[in-house]
Amino acid sequence: MPSTDTPLVRLRDVHLAFGATPVLKGIDLTVGKGQAVSIIGPSGSGKSTILRCLTGLLKPQRGELTVAGTAVHQLHGEAAHRPLRQRVGFVFQQYNLFPHLSVLDNLTVAPRKVLGLPAREAREQALALLAKVRMQHKAAAFPGELSGGQQQRVAIARALAMRPELILFDEVTSALDPEMVGEVLNVIGELTEEGMTCVLVTHEMRFAEGISDQVYFTEHGVIVEHGSAEQLFNHPGEARTQAFLQHALGQPGRRRIPDTYVLRNLSPYHLSV
Question: What is the CATH number of domain 7-270?
Fold first, then answer.
């Protein structure tokens, strides 16, 4: 079990509003090194906002955020945030690949320019990462020639190319066709198995249950309940959590994902609901 003695991420009483509209209302959240933590909840509950606060893309009006020893809430200006963003990978809903660059060049440009890697080392690293996400055969392709699932796997590899201590996933399957979801979730599952510290915002409940050390359920900008995946999914203590999970897991006609997921024991997990 990953150690949580020295948290890699700590949020304390974080408040953020857009104008007169409160979005986060006192968020407390902790992520230990090597943990996989999922944030679940209805749309508009503040999940993605939490991730953006962690990298300084959004600045709370109140509270403390610490990531890898950096007091994010005390940073001001783009230059001050740059070292933090080199240590934190962010994979978005949209792939955000450079359309004019090949897959291989998408993975080498930042390590060369930001980390100062020699061209040969950056290329070797990129090819190894593409093999890791099973995309080495598309190294010479351009993003427009790839499916959505393939582009998202390349985006994950690009985030890993910066050698982050933490990687954030913001609804990375929401824009994908159902048959492409599993190939992306497999890659994320393998990363958590290898001990990469991950924070995921996701609507894929069965996946979150299978890979998460801790799960946070948010609604209306507050943490309603959090605990281990086993506790929260099987024995939720709050009525609102129970209602959300019943709706998310038990509603007829919800999206089915016919694929295999890799979970913590590295055995295949089939979505059987």
Answer: 3.40.50.300
